Amino acid sequence: LSAPGGVSLVVPQPNINATVAQNILLSVEYSCRGVATIEWKHVSSWGTTKIVEWKSGNYVNISTFYKDRVTTFENGSIQLLNVGMRDAGYYFVTVTEEYGTNTYGTIIVNVYEIIYEDLHFVAVLFAFLAAVSAILICFMWLCNKSLHLFQKKTTHKLTASTTEEIELETIEC
């Protein structure tokens, strides 16, 4: 991108995909004959925010919201530390030459969350199934014990009644 006044700007990576808490480099490279002023803005659904403005080899003015999160570089690039979901959007860089000529560049940043909910769901489901299995095993053990006790009582009664019949038969003869 070359403007008539001799300002040129190159954006080597116009799309950046990042995950939450990652550091990203918004890389550009400009050249001009005189002293340039570089300005970065962020535009998203939350609005437009001026990030930083500086004059090459001179002052750097970083907005309060980005104070501890932005590093500027002489070639016009900035590094954004610890990105969050609110950092997704369009980043516009403007390079203005001291004679008033300027050029623009745009970088689109997509920020993705690392989804742990699926893993969490699987862990909870596994714990639930393990608990249900343990309860069923205990229930089956109790049923088995009850059945053995019931069979012992029934066998004992049968033995007693058979003995009585034998005794009764013996007496009748």
Reconstruct the topology from this structure.
Blueprint: E1 8-10, E2 15-19, E3 24-26, E4 29-31, E5 36-44, E6 47-55, E7 60-62, E8 70-72, E9 78-80, E10 89-97, E11 102-112, H1 117-172
Parallel strand pairs: 2-11
Antiparallel strand pairs: 1-4, 3-9, 5-6, 5-10, 6-7, 8-9, 10-11
Pfam families: V-set
Protein name: VSTM5 protein
Keywords: Glycoprotein, Membrane, Signal, Transmembrane, Transmembrane helix
Shape: rod-shaped
| Computed CA radius of gyration, to the nearest angstrom | 40 Å
Mean pLDDT comes to 87
Helix-strand string: EEEEEEEEEEEH
The count of β-strands is: 11
- Taking pLDDT < 50 over at least 5 consecutive residues as the criterion, the unreliable ranges are none
Number of separate domains: 2
Sheet with the most strands: spatial strand order: 2-11-10-5-6-7
- Tally of separate helices: 1
Jot down its keywords.
173 residues, three-stranded antiparallel beta sheet, 11 strands, alpha+beta, Immunoglobulin-like
Could you please describe the fold and organization of this structure?
It comes from Sula dactylatra. It is found in: Membrane. It holds the Pfam family V-set. By secondary structure, the protein is of the alpha+beta class. The chain has two domains: 107 residues, Sandwich (Immunoglobulin-like), CATH 2.60.40.10; 58 residues.
